[in-house]
Amino acid sequence: MAETPYSKRCWFTFPTRNQVEQPIIWQMSQKFPRVSFDIRQASVQNEIGIMAVLLTGAENEVNAAMEFLRSKGVMVEPIEKSVVEG
């Protein structure tokens, strides 16, 4: 029985040079191969990196991948959709 794909849009903030210089996204992809990621926007400098990423997979695996990133010092925050009511 396959689970319905779950998607989560997040900001990933790599707050220090240490996080910026590590292959943390690659490590996540190796640890959670069934979670796909789509980098929608990124700004990476020497000392900080910020990425808008769409994660897709089983909900429990997406959540585990986000926890893995947090364990590596990456700040993971949901991207809030702005809704204009009319």
Large-scale geometry:
globular
Could you give the distance between the termini? 40 Å
Mean pLDDT rating? 91
What share of the residues does DSSP label as strand, in percent? 35-45%
Reported CATH architecture: 2-Layer Sandwich
How many DSSP H or I helices? 3
pLDDT < 50 stretches: none
Q: What is the H/E string?
A: EHHEEHE
Strand neighbour order, sheet with most strands? 2-3-1-4
How many domains is the backbone divided into?
Answer: 1
* CATH top level class name: Alpha Beta
**How would a textbook summarize the main sheet?**
4 strands, antiparallel
Describe the protein in words.
The chain has a single domain (6-78), classed as Alpha-Beta Plaits (2-Layer Sandwich), CATH 3.30.70. With 86 residues, it is of the alpha+beta class. It has helices at 17-21, 24-31, 59-71, and strands spanning 6-14, 36-44, 49-57, 75-78. The radius of gyration is 14 Å and the shape is globular. The mean pLDDT is 91.
Secondary structure topology:
Elements lengths: L5 E9 L2 H5 L2 H8 L4 E9 L4 E9 L1 H13 L3 E4 L8
Antiparallel strand pairs: 1-3, 1-4, 2-3
